[in-house]
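ok new one. same drill as before - structure tokens go in, u give me an amino acid for every spot. 971 of them this time. try not to just spam alanines like last time pls lmao
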């Protein structure tokens, strides 16, 4: 075991391995050394310590913070030595080996360890029962007791002992007295064989129970008067007859005689007195009034027991004979009721001869027609046509006393009708008689047939429906079972007919589920039961004969019954093919994402590799143009510069495309003067218009002279793309830019933009394609006009981000018109109460001292020439660490920091510089990855310029950063 703890109170444990968590960590209420009960001050001079935790001792090696050069304590090589107060492990093992009792450890329904004593006790080897479901070893009558015990313990009831029969290996059952303790999800048990003791006790209890049942069935109790002890004893049945539930102590003869009605009390007083004095037996049927004021007829018998010719005890029986008396009294009423009953009633002797029928039986059978001939039941009841059937019937009656069956009764004229018969065997005056009640069930038979037809239809339907239908019950005691399973369950769970019949318990179904899915199935089921919400779950089940699993979809709807039980009605369906299809889609998606990532990496790499040489070319051309040169050289340099600009535009298009594809191009909304932004775009393209011999004009309404909230960079990019395209595809023609304001809601400004040219135009069939990625209609276009084919695609995507869309109208040879509308948030014009705000004092940029961090010699040479052309001083360092040291030791106005450098990169260097200085830092990078661009913003840079370096852009950025930065230029 290994764990680490802080070196300050309360010494929190911030790391521990799995073994420590399982043995100690999971049981800690506070995960620190104080919670572990450890005073670290007691061990500062020791290399090993003993930790006492939950009655066990653990040994750990210890390293203190000052020893390992860290700010934490290190505990390692942890191991358990022994339990506190317990014998050594060898002695404990010998004790478990020689113990006569069965000792075991387990969790849920399984044993994980059991002592060797299981061999002599039950005949099993320990390995035969470990990890086996214990339910299979319990006697079927005792299994509910075990389950109820487990359920009560889980509910928090204080229980630790129960006794149950366990199946031995030889097939016999033994009574085992279990003592169980539960702790942290595990149970610890000791079992003792008590079969012999229980056998004796059960025999005695059985005998006593038979005596008690005999009294209860016969309604006969036993009483005794002990003249020596002067006490009265009544059995439970005597008390029951008198309906006495309480106050059974101090019972005497006078209290017993008080129950008799006044008319019978003198008779019983005299009978008891004669029995006590003379030993004379008595037998009287009298009437009593019970403690609940109910009157009963009872038969009291008494006898005397002598010793030395003296009566010492009087005892006898006490019997409730109310029913017999009532039977005699009500015999006439019963006869009338029998005769008028709507059911056919027959009374037969033990031979099957009919000796009585009521009116309904006579009507249905036509038996008593005035003749004196013998009538046997076998002539009228189809069930007894075969002689031996009556004998079997009598045998069942003598055993069960009551029998129900269906048959057909036959009238003397041959007419038949179905009946349901209830027979009772009674004994009167020592003679046995059979009373038969027959009910006509013709209508019921018809209804049952109809129901059977419906049932057959539903059964056929459930057998043919793909998958399986089921009814699942969770009773209020927490027991779960299947109440119904359709035959389709065989194919879903791959089980046989016999297993279906024994699947009332959920255990078999759970055993089929993939171990990783069992928790999900049970948790969703419990959630469904608590909320009474529909249940739906996808899980895997085993395929018989293989290690494979198939996917199953389960769904059900719960219903709460009045009994408190929750019943689910649902279905299971094989969705393996669907899952395979989903997996195929997932793989395809991952392949597409991988391809997209490769594309992104390629764009990033190629743009970086292109920017590095372009930076050298662009910088060199810039410096050469600043030197003296001939007109021929100027023409060549301008051609090179134009080519470099085109390459930079293509690279920028690729970078914008990558950002948009990754979903990381965000609009930066800031206040802007709309007409000024548009005019700046046009001013920047005047040279391009002259170079292509085109007339570029701006037509802008006065209403566009407004302040709005928007992204001026992206708006300028859209206009620049459209106007550049128009100039590219137009020679010696006109390009007109129209901007006007349209009606819109309050606080909004809807602006219409249109770029119209007289160029080559676009055919109707190609007008949708021009907005697709990398599409230039024909390959000859790329050869003649250049470009990546991304300009219009990026323009469309940018406008979509602004809740706009671009439209095109064009004819071949007549020119094209691109137009769109953008709705901006309108801002109020700035007002200074009529007084013009004075300009800020301009900073002096005549002389700057610049620190340049660049590891590439070519790039540093080109950039150094550019800085010298500006008239500034600079110092070059080779990596980020040298840049940090230079800022600490030198006096610089600004830092130009390359991102990718050895020893320390630009990100780390900038963060360190910003930790002690406010000097502005501008990032110089040829990287195209979105993550790099984001890190530039996060690392404290004041701005960045992309490579290849545009000298004018770099100078503008330097002045912009120095003007807005609070860092002061040196004097």
């Amino acid at each position: 075991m290994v764990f680490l703890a802080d070196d300050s109170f309360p010494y929190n444990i911030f790391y521990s391995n799995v073994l420590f968590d399982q043995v100690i960590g999971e049981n800690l209420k506070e995960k620190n050394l104080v919670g572990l009960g450890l005073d670290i001050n007691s061990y500062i001079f020791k290399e090993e310590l003993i930790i006492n935790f939950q009655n066990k001792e653990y040994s750990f090696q210890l390293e203190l913070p000052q020893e390992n050069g860290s700010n934490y304590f290190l505990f390692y090589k942890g191991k358990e030595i022994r339990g506190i107060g317990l014998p050594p492990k060898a002695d404990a093992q010998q004790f478990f080996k020689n113990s006569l009792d069965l000792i075991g450890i387990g969790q849920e329904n399984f044993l994980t360890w059991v002592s060797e004593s299981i061999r002599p006790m039950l005949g099993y080897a320990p390995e035969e029962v470990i990890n086996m479901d214990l339910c299979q070893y319990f006697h079927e009558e005792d299994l509910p007791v075990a389950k109820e015990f487990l359920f009560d313990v889980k509910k928090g009831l204080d229980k630790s002992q129960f006794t149950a029969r366990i199946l031995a290996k030889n097939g016999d059952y033994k009574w085992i007295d279990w003592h169980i303790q539960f702790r942290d999800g595990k149970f610890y048990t000791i079992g003792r064989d008590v079969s012999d003791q229980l056998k004796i006790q059960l025999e005695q209890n059985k005998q006593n129970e038979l005596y008690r049942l005999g009294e209860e069935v016969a309604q006969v109790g036993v009483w005794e008067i002990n003249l020596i002890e002067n006490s009265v004893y009544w059995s439970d049945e005597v008390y029951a007859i008198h309906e006495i539930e309480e106050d059974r102590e101090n019972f005497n003869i006078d209290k017993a005689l008080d129950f008799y009605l006044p008319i019978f009390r003198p008779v019983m007083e005299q009978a008891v007195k004669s029995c006590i004095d003379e030993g004379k037996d008595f037998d009287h049927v009298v009437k009593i009034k019970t403690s609940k004021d109910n009157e009963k007829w009872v038969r009291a018998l008494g006898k005397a027991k002598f010793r030395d010719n003296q009566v010492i005890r009087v005892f006898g029986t006490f019997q409730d004979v109310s029913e017999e008396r009532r039977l005699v009294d009500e015999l006439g009423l019963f006869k009338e009721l029998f005769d008028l009953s709507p059911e056919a009633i027959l009374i037969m002797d033990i031979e099957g001869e009919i000796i009585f029928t009521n009116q309904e039986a006579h009507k249905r059978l036509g038996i008593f027609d005035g003749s004196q001939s013998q009538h046997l039941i076998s002539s009228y009841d189809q069930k007894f046509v075969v002689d031996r059937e009556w004998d079997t019937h009598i045998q069942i009656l003598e055993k069960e006393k009551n029998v129900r069956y269906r048959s057909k009764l036959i009238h003397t004229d041959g007419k038949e009708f179905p009946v349901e018969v209830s027979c009772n065997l009674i004994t009167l005056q020592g003679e046995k008689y059979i009373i038969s009640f027959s009910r006509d069930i013709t209508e019921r038979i018809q209804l049952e047939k109809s129901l059977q037809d419906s049932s057959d239809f539903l059964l056929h339907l459930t057998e043919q429906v793909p998958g399986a239908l089921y009814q699942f019950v969770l009773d209020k005691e927490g027991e779960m079972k299947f109440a119904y399973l359709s035959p389709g369950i065989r194919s879903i769970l791959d089980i046989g007919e016999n297993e279906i019949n024994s699947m009332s318990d959920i255990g078999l179904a759970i055993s089929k589920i993939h171990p990783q899915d069992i928790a999900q199935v049970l948790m969703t089921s419990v959630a469904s039961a608590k909320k009474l919400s529909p249940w739906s779950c996808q899980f895997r089940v085993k395929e018989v004969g293989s290690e494979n699993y198939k996917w199953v979809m389960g769904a059900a709807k719960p219903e709460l019954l009045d009994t408190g039980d929750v019943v689910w009605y649902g279905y299971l369906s094989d969705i393996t093919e669907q899952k395979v299809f989903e997996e195929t889609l997932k793989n395809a998606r991952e392949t597409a994402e991988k391809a997209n990532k490769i594309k992104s990496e390629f764009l990033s790499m190629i743009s970086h590799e292109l920017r590095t040489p372009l930076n050298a070319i662009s910088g060199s051309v810039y410096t050469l143009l600043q030197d003296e040169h001939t007109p021929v050289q100027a023409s060549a340099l301008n051609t090179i510069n134009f080519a470099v600009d085109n390459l930079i535009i293509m690279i920028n298009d690729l970078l914008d495309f990558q950002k948009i594809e990754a979903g990381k191009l965000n609009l930066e909304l800031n206040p802007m003067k709309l007409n000024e932004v548009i005019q700046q775009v046009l001013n920047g393209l005047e040279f391009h218009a002259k170079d292509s011999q085109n007339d570029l004009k701006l037509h802008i309404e006065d209403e566009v002279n407004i302040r709005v909230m928007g992204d001026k960079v992206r708006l300028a990019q859209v206009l620049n793309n459209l106007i550049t395209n128009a100039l590219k595809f137009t020679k010696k023609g006109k390009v007109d830019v129209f901007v006007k304001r349209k009606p819109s809601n309050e606080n909004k400004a809807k602006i219409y933009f249109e770029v119209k040219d007289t160029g080559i135009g676009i055919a109707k069939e190609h007008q949708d394609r021009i907005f697709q990625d990398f599409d230039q209609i024909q390959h000859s276009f790329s050869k003649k006009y250049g470009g990546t084919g991304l300009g219009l695609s990026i323009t469309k995507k940018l406008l979509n981000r602004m809740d706009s869309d671009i439209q095109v109208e064009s004819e071949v040879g007549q020119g094209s018109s691109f137009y769109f509308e953008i709705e901006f948030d309108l801002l109020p014009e700035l007002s200074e109460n009529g007084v013009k705000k004075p300009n800020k004092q301009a900073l002096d940029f005549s002389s700057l001292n610049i620190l340049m961090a660049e590891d590439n010699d070519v790039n540093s040479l080109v950039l150094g020439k550019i800085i010298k052309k500006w008239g500034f001083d600079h110092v070059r360092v080779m990596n980020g660490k040298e840049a940090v040291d230079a800022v600490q030791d030198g006096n610089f106005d600004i830092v130009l920091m390359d991102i990718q450098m050895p020893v320390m990169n630009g990100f780390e260097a900038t963060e360190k510089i910003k930790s002690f200085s406010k000097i502005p830092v501008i990032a110089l990078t040829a990287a195209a990855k979105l993550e790099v661009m984001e890190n530039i913003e996060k690392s404290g840079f004041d701005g960045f310029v992309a490579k290849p370096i545009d000298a004018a852009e770099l100078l503008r950025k330097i002045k912009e950063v120095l003007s807005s930065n609070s860092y002061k230029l040196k004097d």
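The first helix runs from residue 18 to 23. and btw The mean pLDDT is 80.
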